Amino acid sequence: MISTKNITFSYSKEQSFIFPDLHCDAGNTILITGDSGKGKTTYLHILAGLLRPTSGSIEIDKTDIVSLSEHKNDKYRGQNIGLVLQKSHFVSALTVLENLEMASWLANGKKNTERAKKLLNELNIANQANKLPSQLSIGQQQRVSIARALMNEPKVLLADEPTSSLDDKNAETVIRLLTDLSKEYKTALVIVTHDSRIKEKFTNKLTLI
Ligand SMILES: Nc1ncnc2c1ncn2[C@@H]1O[C@H](COP(=O)(O)OP(=O)(O)OP(=O)(O)O)[C@@H](O)[C@H]1O
What we know:
By secondary structure, the chain is an alpha/beta fold. Helices cover 36% and strands 24% of the residues. It has helices at 40-47, 70-80, 96-108, 113-122, 138-149, 168-184, 196-199; strands at 2-12, 15-19, 23-24, 29-34, 55-60, 63-64, 81-84, 156-160, 188-192, 205-208. The strands form two sheets. Strands 1, 2, 3, 5 and 6 form a five-stranded antiparallel sheet that branches. A five-stranded parallel sheet has the order 7-8-9-4-10, sandwiched between helices. The longest helix has 17 residues, at 168-184. It binds adenosine-5'-triphosphate (ATP). Adenosine-5'-triphosphate binds next to helix 1. Residues 2-209 form the ABC transporter domain. This is ABC transporter ATP-binding protein.
C-alpha cells in the first residue's frame, strides 16, 4: 500500500508543485496522467524517495519514507520499491541474468538466481538470460527492467511511461505483465503515462493539472 498526503515540491523559487493525494492498495494499480511538464515524473521520483518533498508524507505500509534519513531511504528503496524508469540503466558489461542477480545482491547481499530465472521465465525472456542487455530489443529490455524491479518482492512498483517506445502489441503485453505480476506479488502499481492506449484500460487515475 502507498498513500501520500499534502506533497509539495519545488526545483526553484519560480516553479513549485502541489501534488494531489494518492492512494493505492497492494495488488491494485493507479495511473498518474496529465499534460507534458505538469510534474508526473517529478511526482514518481518523489514517491521513489529519489527527490525529497518540501512538505507532506508518503506512507508505504507503515513507514513514512519522507522522515527517513538519506541512508535509510536508499536502503528502504532497494528493499521495498521497484522502479521501471524511462531509461533502463543496465550494467552493460553484465548479462541479463547477472543484472537481475545484482539487484538482489545490492538489496540484501544475496544473489537470488532462482528468483531471477523465475521472473525471466514469467516474462517470456528466459532465452535471453545470457545475453548482454544491448543485444536485446527495446521491448525485451523493457521486460528485463520489469523483472529487475520485481527482484526484491517490492511493496510498490513505480513505472515511468513504460510503453512510450513500444508498438501496440508490446505495449499491451507490458501492461498485462505489470498488472498480472502486481496482483501475483501483491504490489501496489503506480504508472505514469500519457499513453491513451493505457489510459482507457484503467479507472483509478490521478490527473495532474
Ligand atoms: N532536475 C530538474 N531541475 C529543474 N527543473 C526540472 C527538473 N526536472 C524537471 N524539471 C521541470 O519540472 C517540470 C515538470 O517536469 P516533469 O518531467 O516532472 O514533467 P512530466 O509531467 O513528467 O512531463 P513529460 O510528460 O513531458 O515527461 C518541467 O517544467 C521541467 O522543466
